[in-house]
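I hope you will forgive my troubling you with a question about protein structure. I should value your view on which stretches of the chain appear to form regular backbone elements. Here, with my thanks, is the record as I have it:
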Amino acid sequence: MQRLGIDAGGTLIKIAVEENGKYHLKMYPLDELESVMSWLKMSAPIAKVALTGGKANQLKKQFLHDAIMVEEFQATCDGARFLLMEEKKELQVPYLLVNIGTGTSWYHIKGSESERILGSGLGGGAYMGLGSLLAKEVGFHQLTEFAAVGNKGKADLLVKDIYEGEEPPIGADLTAANFAKVSKGTPSKEDLISSLSNMIAENIVLLSLQAAAIHHVKDIVYIGSTLSGNSALKNSLESYTEMLSLTPHFLEKGQFCGAYGALLSL
């Protein structure tokens, strides 16, 4: 192994490894930190290492004393630029980069320049926290499966529920009030997680719309570990973004933007 980029976030450790000109990607839950560091010391004892993310200082002090530190927001944006080129995505510049990790951050990208313009506590942390309350202690992948098969209309009050057969002025299946039917019915845990996923998607897209209007952009690039294997969230983001006449883009390896950005700094 020649170079390692490690993005140590609030819940996950993402690693990009460059070995003989090829990239390899790995992701672990934060509670496996000790075993991950032991593996790195055995398999890559002389590799150059760059760290980023909220837990980067902890890793440097405890395990990787010679590693260099890379500012988290810069690493995320640099990694996203690299992956956009690797995946041959064509989009207008400037554009918005929306990173849905434990929380969610918005960046305005203009060429080599980037600026974090907005942040929200709605992201993967809320998805896991509220999901565990609604579905009684299940893991991330189980939540994504629930969201994919659930019916948000069993938990959410929809526009068509208010107009009751009349022609509404906006889309009939849009949400009028999140979780408003819960007190009057018995939605399943799948329906509740579908509603949760939809609520997070709606709010992220609405904030993206406001940011796009302020900064005069049309393209939105969504990245982050919360999208990994999460078809329901991705589909909702795509649908709502297009509904608002913006163009959504998703990076195949978007959860590794920070790790790539750290690696590229070496």
